[in-house]
Amino acid sequence: MTAVLDRFLLWQKFIILSVIALVLAGIPTTMYMYEAGKTLDAALDEQSGLGPAADILRVTQLTQQHRGLSALLLGGVAGVKDKRDAKQKEADQAYAKFDALVHSFNDKAIEEAWATPKRDWDELRNRVANQTITVQESYAAHTALLPKLLAVNDLTADKFGLSLDPDTDSYQLIQSMYYQLPYLTEESGKMRAKGAGMLAKHEATLEDRQVLAAIIGRVNDRLTQTHTALNKAFIANPVLRDKLATQWGQAYDATNKVMQLASQHIVQAENLDFPGTDYVEQITAAIDAQFAVNQAASQQLTTMIAEKISDLHRTRWLMIGAMLGLIILAGVAARLVARSVSEPLGVLSALPNASPTAI
Question: What is the mean predicted confidence (pLDDT) over 310-339?
Fold first, then answer.
């Protein structure tokens, strides 16, 4: 090896050292760029998933609202037919929009999960519109349909990596938005529809009251779980508390009030004389408040992910710029060092009778 190196001029040896240094620096840099690229791709996937996630939640919300209005219509409450018809039309549009999205996903698991609730909705809405289904059958069919929609919601969030977010604040916000709040709205929707059917008939068996009491208990459980997840996000990011805490507090209080309403006027009441339309309106307002929190949280999440993507782009370009700057600086330094050594040696070799002993 020494014999080989002796054949090179000094400046050539400096070039060899520079190349070795570049290789040593290039290995960790390449690894960093690879990992940074994966992080950026994950953030971009999350960003692209926010729209579809909002769309499937909209489908869920409208189906829940249709369940409550169907209970009133089939129970013989006057003045709700037009509202029910309008809600069906609105839901049809939401189903069609998400159906188009599903076909664009090229994801077999989501396509298979979506096919069943879409088919069930088409059959159910026709039976309600033609009033060939009872209040109890409508409630059971809607209630069987909605978990299938929530399963599609979970798959959609998972497809875009929303469940794998690495940051505590956005992770907890996502957990509350896509894995807690939808189930809270569903249990609240069950409470609305089950109670509306009982109030429409002005009667309820002991079993009916027990079922509604159990639903109220599950609403309370989901409310607590959602509250816990949101508080974790607030602790991790005080800005989220400033933006969302007041609105969530209003939804939280409204949900507690309608739980008390259902318990007082149906579960514990001797006579079911509370107006069914008022009952539906009050619970719908509470559920709408829950969805409003979700929409506000979605806006915050959109901003957070956009900022994360911007930061990742900026950091990557700063790293590339820093590495190029260091390479140029190293090249210039190597050249200056080579010249500082080679020029004196050149002068020395030009002196007459110069020898190492003389030096």
Answer: 76
As given in the structure block, the two tokens for residue 259 are 């739980």
Confirm if 152 and 69 have CB atoms less than 8 A apart: no
Q: Which residues contact 37 (CB under 8 A, 6 or more apart)?
A: 316
Write a three-state SS string for 168-225: HHHHHHHHHHHCCHHHHHHHHHHHHHHHHHHHHHCCCCHHHHHHHHHHHHHHHHHHHH
Which SS3 state, helix, strand or coil, does residue 278 take? helix
Q: Are 241 and 300 in contact (CB under 8 A)?
A: no
- CA dist., res. 141 & res. 128, Å (int): 11
For residue 169, which phi and psi values (nearest 5 degrees)? -65, -50
pLDDT per position as a tens digit, 270-320: 899 999 889 999 999 999 999 999 999 989 998 988 888 888 888 778 877
**Cα 221 from Cα 224, distance rounded (Å):** 5
Separation CA 315–CA 332 (nearest Å): 25
